[in-house]
Design a protein that fits this description.
- With about 250 residues, the chain is of the alpha/beta class.
- It has helices at about 5-10, 20-35, 40-55, 75-85, 95-100, 120-125, 130-140, 155-165, 185-195, 210-230, 240-250; strands spanning about 60-65, 90-95, 110-115, 145-150, 170-175, 200-205.
- The longest helix has 19 residues, at about 210-230.
- The protein is globular and about 65 Å long.
């Protein structure tokens, strides 16, 4: 069995593994595609956000910032994240729940969680355990070149933003911390450093979010990488060029 066939067999979208489950997953995504465009890589992330949140309008709350070698179009964070998966970069989450939601199939990336590190720093300073955990892992160089996924803790997002200001460069960020205290502000902070330092990031606006959403969006980066690996997708294309290609193919039909 070739590598591409192996990854094709191991990876099933939305975590489905049985035929019945895969049929349900595909039907679900077919319904989502009736309401969300299907032209760009960013659209794929929007679709996954809608499926994860059960809310068609959530597609309008997803933000794409930062750029890559092709530019700062909305597909840039998805391309960057997929490249990182293909390069077997570490995926670092804020808490256990985010880590548990990220598939272990279809990639060879190490999955790590920040929480559980930095206990002494948290005790000494009084900062949250998640913030201290991010700072501790950053001291070890873990976030450079990694996919940083934050689904729960706003303080983890603030800490990561500080690390980026001090020179840390994740390959891509998925940040959707949820809540009523500083959650929205923490994502604004991530978008700010993403744009200033050209670090690709996927975030959302508003108070909603959570670990399930962060895991789902990270899984879509893995799914995009799988499609590249199996020659079902060309990665190095801008969003505008990809959308134009889809429109042209639609007219031909």
């Amino acid at each position: 069995m070739s590598d591409s066939q192996e990854f094709e067999q191991e990876y099933a979208d939305l975590g489905a593994t049985t035929q019945n489950a895969m049929d349900i997953a595909e039907t679900s995504m077919d319904i989502v595609r009736q309401f969300v465009p299907d032209e760009t890589l960013a659209d794929r992330v929007r679709q996954k956000s809608v499926h994860s949140m059960g809310d068609i309008e959530f597609q309008h709350l997803i933000e794409f910032t930062g750029g890559d070698d092709l530019g700062d179009d909305e597909d840039a964070p998805v391309r960057a994240g997929a490249r990182a998966v293909l390069e077997e970069a570490t995926i670092v989450t804020d808490i256990t729940m985010s880590k548990a939601g990220i598939t272990g199939r279809g990639h060879n990336c190490e999955k790590r969680k920040a929480i559980g590190n930095g206990a002494e720093l948290a005790k000494e300073t009084g900062m949250t355990r998640t913030a201290a955990s991010v700072l501790e892992l950053d001291k070890q160089g873990v976030y450079d070149g990694a996919i940083a996924t934050i689904g729960n803790a706003p303080t983890a997002a603030f800490a990561l933003a500080d690390c980026i200001e001090n020179g840390t460069r994740p390959a891509a960020i998925v940040a959707t911390p949820v809540g009523f205290v500083k959650a929205e502000e923490s994502r604004q902070r991530i978008r700010g450093v993403s744009e200033e330092y050209d670090v690709p990031a996927i975030t959302n606006v508003g108070r909603r979010g959570g670990s399930g959403l962060a895991a789902a969006l990270t899984n879509e980066l893995i799914h995009v990488a799988k499609d590249v690996r199996t020659d079902d997708l060309e990665l190095e294309v801008t969003a505008d060029a990809r959308a134009a290609r889809v429109e042209s193919e639609s007219k031909d039909e």
